[in-house]
UniProtKB/TrEMBL annotation:
Domain of life of the native organism: Bacteria
Organism of this sequence: Microbacterium immunditiarum
Gene3D superfamilies: Hexapeptide repeat proteins
A GO term, aspect molecular function: acyltransferase activity
Protein name in the entry: UDP-3-O-[3-hydroxymyristoyl] glucosamine N-acyltransferase
Length: 135
């Protein structure tokens, strides 16, 4: 039987150990907390300090950086990038190849389309069609 973990060297020469998540086989760094009912697909990376809530789904090739929070039932599409310290609200949907900046906030139930960029520190709320609401 194969290993259930992978060691990867980061940009600072430190070796980080990632375990394969039981739902989807995505890589979860030591220090990240992922609910057992969440799905983290193969090819996705979840860094230390991340919290992923019940029922959340992280797509193939997505990258969730340090200390980000993914709310219950949130959906992160393939190849999306969630920056350090960002928060994705419950039931929010993040599109394919979308970049959510460092410390950004996406409100509960928001719909962020494909190939969008949410700036560092920006707070975004949309209706169910993805139209941005006034702040």
């Amino acid at each position: 039987m194969g290993k259930n973990y992978v060691d990867i060297e980061n940009d600072h020469g430190e070796t980080l150990r990632y375990r394969k998540h039981v739902n989807g086989r995505g890589l979860i760094a030591n220090g990240a907390k992922v609910h057992p009912s969440a799905v983290v697909e193969a090819g996705a990376y979840v860094e230390p300090g991340v919290h992923i809530a019940a029922g959340a789904h992280v797509g193939r090739g997505a990258w969730v950086e340090t200390d980000a929070v993914i709310g219950p039932e949130a959906q992160i599409a393939p190849h999306a990038h969630i920056g350090p310290g960002a928060a994705i609200g419950a039931g929010a949907k993040i599109g394919v190849r979308t970049h959510v900046g460092s410390g950004a906030r996406v409100a509960v139930g928001s719909l962020i389309g494909d190939d969008e960029t949410i700036a560092d520190g920006e707070s975004v709320a949309t209706d169910r069609r993805g139209l941005r609401l006034a702040a």
